[in-house]
Design goal:
The complex is a heterodimer of chains A (187) and B (149). Chain A has 187 residues and is mainly α. Chain A has helices at 12-21, 28-47, 58-70, 76-84, 88-107, 112-130, 138-153, 163-173, 178-184; one strand at 25-26. Chain B has one domain (4-135). The A-B interface holds A 1-2, 23-26, 28, 31, 36, 39-40, 43, 46-47, 49-50, 53, 103-104, 107-109, 154-155, 158-162, 164-165, 167-168, 171, 184-185 and B 18, 21-22, 25-26, 78-79, 82, 110-112, 115-116, 119, 122-123, 126-127, 130-131, 133-134, 139-149.
Chain lengths: 187, 149
């Protein structure tokens, strides 16, 4: 919500209140910095495709087995063993596609908040399964979740990204179309 | 006011610098910078990664200059900067990765490698177009809340 200057505001308290409630404007350097961070986080996800390439997704299997052994969520091990591992190729296709999508969305700044949301979900799944496995540092996956959340909070695709073009179009169309309004949440 | 060609050269060098960062970040580290040095037959020595990094910045500036030449006669809209930037990235991939790396030096790529070089080339183009668009002005600032209103 934007704050418009009001002639009734006179006291220092009122002025201070207006100043703190006004939406913060990101400077050009901050926008560029967050865009560079987004690109590197996109690369992080994109690089993980290399060791689980289709059609076998071989590198992924041992990690899913490890998740089934060490997850801290009750019942999740049962789901991993009896649904995901028994239909491993379906799981592999889903995981590979999802990570590829996250990588591309973040690298190109296209629906970057959606990219951040998907990254958060994938990272939380990794945290739930692997954070307390032997040899793992639980903050690795915790930081992945936090990075994802940061990219949901900040419109990181508005510089060095395609969202820079999409955002004004979607905001204009959002008044008429509910689909555009929903899509505008994700840029 | 700076000419579009000069802006393209500056933006291209910056986009090349970003590629240096992206190519540095691997298990090597910087295995891909060796590949870049190999494009000019300067790999296999102690400085090949540094040579690869410098080469990316120089090539980035060169392609940026070409981008600026193309954009000189075009209406300066951000959409046009980004689309032509992406096409420049595709040209980068075609010339450097397909022709120089593939046909000239016969560097074999895994399926992931093919995807990696294509995507990073397009990222170069996107960053080139976006930076030049921002340098020419007319791009609105972003407000956290205002952007979603």
């Amino acid at each position: 919500m934007r704050i418009s200057p009001s002639p009734e505001i006179h006291t220092p308290t009122e002025i201070a209140s207006t100043a703190t409630s006004a939406p913060p404007v990101l400077g050009e350097r901050s926008l560029m910095l967050i865009a560079v961070v987004r690109i590197f986080v996109g690369l992080l996800w994109f690089q993980q495709l290399a060791w689980k390439m289709p059609p076998t997704f071989a590198g992924l299997h041992s990690y899913v087995v490890k998740e089934a052994q060490y997850t801290f969520i009750p019942g999740y091990a049962f789901i991993l063993r009896n649904i995901f591992l028994t239909h491993f190729l379906v799981l592999g296709t889903f995981v590979w596609s999802a990570e590829c999508l996250v990588g591309l969305l973040l690298l190109f700044g296209l629906f970057s908040r959606l990219g951040g949301l998907l990254a958060t979900i994938l990272a939380f799944q990794l945290y739930a399964g692997l954070a307390y496995a032997p040899g793992e540092w639980y903050w690795t996956y915790g930081m992945l979740v936090l990075l994802g959340l940061t990219l949901i909070a900040v419109p990181s695709g508005r510089r060095l990204g395609i969202d820079q073009l999409l955002a004004p179009c979607l905001q204009q169309t959002a008044r008429k179309s509910s689909l555009a309004r929903i899509a505008s949440w994700f840029v | 006011m700076q000419s579009t060609v000069k802006l393209g050269v500056r933006a291209g060098a910056l986009a090349g610098l970003l590629l240096v960062g992206l190519f540095f970040t691997d298990y090597g580290p910087a295995t891909n910078l060796n590949t870049v040095a190999h494009w000019v037959a300067l790999s296999g020595n102690a400085f090949s990664k540094v040579i690869g990094a410098l080469l990316l910045i120089v090539l980035g500036a060169l392609f940026g200059g070409f981008f600026g030449l193309v954009m000189r006669r075009q209406p300066a809209t951000l959409a046009r900067f980004i689309v032509v930037g992406l096409l420049t990235g595709l040209l980068w991939w075609g010339v450097l990765v397909l022709l120089v790396s593939g046909l000239l030096w016969h560097i074999q790529q895994s399926p992931y490698g093919v995807l990696f070089w294509l995507i990073t080339s397009l990222v170069y183009g996107l960053v080139l177009g976006s930076i030049t668009g921002n340098m020419t002005g007319g791009v609105q600032r972003v407000q956290y809340e205002g952007a979603r209103a």
